């Protein structure tokens, strides 16, 4: 046997021996994908839309004490200073804060014109309320509601709680509008929200 053949035989033997050995297995830990959180869990998570308790919010130069389940929303109109969504059994109510010039009565009349009361709806009511020491008018309306954002006809069995306050040269308005089943139980909550207003120094 020549030296060349001996060398080939040795190399072949070494390769066969290496191939016959099994590659050792290594246990790799499997990372379990996190479960998707439910909508209620997401709302309870810190930093989400719904707060754990009452919180402060500053809108239009006033600081308000806001109930924990009122969710701040981007204003749907350039005339709105701040907006909140308020949950309820038959749909959310919308609360807006805005300011405008002109007379208070003209703006209150516009609110009245947005409602068409039915035979079983309560009559419109007006009473006095205070916002940071300034006397204002609380307007309570009920019936079928229509405004520029209404689609598919008027919203039936709705209610509005609106406050109009004259502060210097400007009028300030706080308005909650939505299904009666949402707005009715929130009346006292709405009044506390208005009365909590404190002008930022």
* Chain-averaged pLDDT: 79
Unreliable stretches (pLDDT < 50, length at least 5) are 2-26, 28-49
Give the DSSP E fraction (strand runs of 2 or more residues): 35-45%
Shape: globular
Q: Provide the gyration radius in Å.
A: 33 Å
Distance between the termini: 105 Å
Q: How many helical elements?
A: 5
Going by helix content, strand content and strand pairing, the class is alpha+beta
Number of strands: 11
Q: What's the order of the H and E elements?
A: HHEEEEEHEEEEEHHE
Query: What profile does the largest beta sheet have?
Result: 8 strands, antiparallel
Helix content: 10-25%
Topology of helices and strands:
Elements: H1 3-20, H2 39-44, E1 55-59, E2 62-66, E3 71-73, E4 80-86, E5 93-100, H3 104-113, E6 115-116, E7 125-131, E8 134-145, E9 155-167, E10 170-179, H4 180-183, H5 187-195, E11 198-199
Antiparallel strand pairs: 1-2, 2-11, 3-4, 4-5, 5-10, 6-8, 7-8, 8-9, 9-10
What would you say this structure looks like, in words?
With 201 residues, this protein is an alpha+beta fold. It has helices at 3-20, 39-44, 104-113, 180-183, 187-195, and strands at residues 55-59, 62-66, 71-73, 80-86, 93-100, 115-116, 125-131, 134-145, 155-167, 170-179, 198-199. The strands form two sheets. Strands 3, 4, 5, 6, 7, 8, 9 and 10 form an eight-stranded antiparallel sheet that branches. Strands 1-2-11 form a three-stranded antiparallel sheet.
């Amino acid at each position: 046997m020549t030296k060349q053949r001996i060398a080939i035989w040795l190399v072949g033997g070494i390769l066969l021996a290496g191939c016959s050995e099994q590659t050792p297995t290594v246990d790799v830990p499997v990372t379990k994908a996190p479960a998707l959180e439910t909508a209620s869990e997401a709302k309870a998570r810190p930093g989400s839309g719904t707060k754990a308790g009452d919180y402060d919010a500053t809108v239009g130069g006033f600081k308000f004490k806001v109930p924990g389940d009122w969710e701040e929303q981007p204003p749907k109109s350039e005339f709105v200073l701040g907006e909140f969504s308020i949950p309820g059994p038959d749909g959310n109510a919308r609360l807006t804060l805005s300011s405008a010039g002109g007379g208070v009565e003209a703006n209150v009349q516009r609110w009245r014109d947005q409602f068409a009361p039915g035979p079983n709806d309560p009559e419109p009511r007006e009473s006095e309320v205070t916002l940071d020491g300034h006397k204002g008018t609380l307007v309570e309306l009920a019936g079928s509601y229509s405004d520029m954002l209404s689609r598919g006809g008027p919203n039936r069995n709705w209610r509005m709680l609106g406050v109009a306050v004259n502060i210097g040269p400007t009028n300030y308005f706080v308005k909650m509008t939505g299904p009666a089943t949402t707005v009715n139980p929130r009346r006292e909550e709405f009044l506390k929200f208005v009365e909590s207003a404190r002008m930022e120094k």
